[in-house]
Automatic annotation (TrEMBL):
Keyword Transport: no
Gene name of this polypeptide: todT_1
Pfam families: GerE (PF00196), Response_reg (PF00072)
CDD domains linked to this entry: LuxR_C_like
Highest rank taxon of the organism: Bacteria
Protein name (record): Response regulator protein TodT
Record keyword DNA-binding present: yes
Positions of post-translational 4-aspartylphosphate modification: 57
Positions of the HTH luxR-type domain: 135-200
Source organism (scientific name): Paraburkholderia metrosideri
Coiled coil feature spans: none
SMART domains: HTH_LUXR, REC
Key words, A-Z: DNA-binding, Phosphoprotein, Transcription, Transcription regulation
The Response regulatory domain, residue ranges: 7-119
Length: 207
């Protein structure tokens, strides 16, 4: 984990808690941003631009921690903090994808361990989003006909079958297919299928 760009967002209406957590995390090498309300956090539009996680108080004036979790829709890994243990809330938080549910006053080692897990998850998700964006960019460079050819090739159809379905010459389909492979940077049909899956591109039969 590259901690120089990993960010931890602390959201807690208790100034003492925010300050203590911020000091701990900065001393551990993290870039920390603290917020006194969920609303101030949600105004940010760069939350997932780099690997990041949220230390989020469960009960605050205004939006609750669970409501924030619902709004973020698992955009960032969340570690919940609460001064009142609530089995139902804990179950809801974990079901919603929370990394951990810690009771205040929290043990420093538990917080740091939870943050490491959260940032590892965030880093993996950032890598997936970046890869998907790159694949989508490749798809955007395909012509309409090349996309049609790719959709059929993904089903395992042979060139002559694709040609028959599209009403084109097999030689023409071979050219389109070669261009698809080149633009998608795929060295084999198996790799093309994997790229399509990661980029959310469907085979013709799935549309």
């Amino acid at each position: 984990m590259n901690e120089s760009i990993a960010r931890v967002f602390i959201v807690d209406d208790d100034e003492r808690v925010r300050g203590a957590l911020a000091r701990l995390l900065r001393a551990s090498g993290y870039h920390v941003e603290a917020f006194e309300s969920p609303e101030s956090l949600l105004q940010r539009n760069d939350l997932a631009s780099t690997p990041a996680c949220i230390l989020l108080d469960l009960q605050m004036p205004g939006l609750t921690g669970l409501e924030v979790q619902s709004q973020l829709n698992q955009l960032l890994p969340i570690i919940f903090l609460t001064g009142h243990g609530d089995i139902g809330s804990c179950a809801d938080a974990m079901k919603g994808g929370a990394v951990d549910f810690l009771i205040k006053p929290v043990c420093e080692s538990l917080v740091l361990a939870a943050i490491e897990r959260a940032l590892a998850r965030a880093s993996a998700e950032c890598a997936k989003r970046k890869q998907r964006a790159e694949i989508e960019e490749r798809v955007n460079h395909l012509t309409r006909r090349e996309r049609e050819v790719m959709a059929l090739v993904l089903t395992g159809r042979l060139n002559k079958q694709v040609a028959s379905e599209l009403g084109a010459a097999e030689k023409t389909i071979k050219i389109h297919r070669a261009r698809v492979m080149e633009k998608m940077k795929a060295r084999s049909i198996v790799e093309l299928v994997r790229l399509a899956e990661k980029g959310g591109v469907h085979a013709a039969d799935d549309e």
